[in-house]
Amino acid sequence: MSDETIRLATIGRIIRRRLRLLLVLAVVGALVGYGTSLLFPPRYTTSASILLPGAWQERELLTQAEIATSSVVVDRAAAALRWSGADGGKLRERVSAKAADGNIIKISGTAETPERAQRLSDQVAKEFVSFAARIAGDSANPGAAGPEALRQLVAQAGRRITELADAADPGRTVESVQGRTELTKLRTALQEAMKKLDQANPAAGKATMVVMGPAARPAGEAPPTRVQLIVAGALLFFLLGVIGHLTAARTSRRLRTEPEIAAALGSALLGTVDVPGERPVHRPEGRGPQARIRRLLGTDIPWDITAPQASGDEAGRQLRYRRVCARLRDQLPAARRLLVVVPDGDEIARRAAGQLAAEAEAENDPSASSSSRGCPALRVVGVSVSRPLVPDRDAESGALVVLSAGSWTPEELAGIAGACADARHEVVGVVVAAPVRARPTRSADDPPDGAAAAIAVGLAARGGSV
């Protein structure tokens, strides 16, 4: 299995086992997004398009877009609109321009209402066209000799040259022919000079900019809208919840293997027992609002506990308990009583300790065989992990710690071991309880697995069908 598959499986496990908590976080995020939308009033945006006839290079279009949002243009628009509290500096933050395909400059305006957004875009577009015409020399000073006036003078000079050439003696003398030739050369030179002037100043040959109609009145709010903020807040808090669980899992110090647990308690591992159960068992019901909230949100059990594995039959599970009792009998042959310490909140360990005590009592039954007698009597006590306190030593010969894997840190287990030492109990062993899924009960008519296998082998040997 690849690392990516493992990570996806981990995220799926978080969503399944912490769904209620993640939904609560999503609701909180939606409320935060709604509150944010109340702080920022709705905005509306619309655009006005301006056509620039002629041949324009990309850099020239970018320059015109910068001019459209310059302080000169926006200040003139603010003076024409006369909005209270909206000078040129504030309006410049609401105006933007960009060059589109087809020599078009789009000027966008943002305001609190659709009407004001429309007026702002139209006014800025109007002021931009006026300012651009002034720069080109079309309307700032009509009396000045600009490129257009020079072109008119050249045309007049060309016509005058033609009149002089026609009035001259048409080829009767050498002087008249030379004069007509010189006048033709002069007219050609003037035309070439005008062509070079147009090439040197392309803007002079371009037509005036045209506003392509008024800006459309916006029908909806500009992003981010209130709905977008609410959805974004819910998704953000949901993702933060998942990321928080992943971070906590990577930084978790809970012990998951039997050797680590035995080393933290400073004792030997006596064995692992199975506790059947189809559903994840909750911790013992606590008192107070915090315990109820934890149970309501589903945070009373760790989410990163692996799913219970399939278990064998009841005989196999009882055999594990008998082996633990046999190891206790071999390790403490003279002991008559042991204290079984179970951390509070570990429901799996509590059930395993109860089963272990029942098995020890059954082996000490006078009706049992003499070979199985001699297991110490077990007394189960619960110990708080936050402030561990173990009963003082009475008739016990030591303490047996029963707990489940993946629930406790080394510091918590060290605290339990210290509490046992304070009560003069030696930790004689550790038993790890593992949750398993019990197999469905076989009906009385179904043969055991071994019998079914034997029947199948016999039929195959005789050549019959299985």
TrEMBL record:
Transmembrane segments: 21-40, 227-248
Chaperone found in the keyword field: no
Membrane-topology annotation of the record: Multi-pass membrane protein
Domain Polysaccharide chain length determinant N-terminal residue range list: 5-66
KW Membrane (keyword) present: yes
Places the protein is found: Cell membrane
Keywords from the named record: Cell membrane, Membrane, Transmembrane, Transmembrane helix
InterPro entries found in the cross-reference section: Bact_polysacc_biosynth/exp, LPS_length_determ_N
GO annotations of cellular component type: plasma membrane
One matching Pfam family: Wzz
Similarity comment text for this entry: Belongs to the CpsC/CapA family.
The name this protein goes by in its record: Wzz/FepE/Etk N-terminal domain-containing protein
Lineage of producing organism: Bacteria, Bacillati, Actinomycetota, Actinomycetes, Kitasatosporales
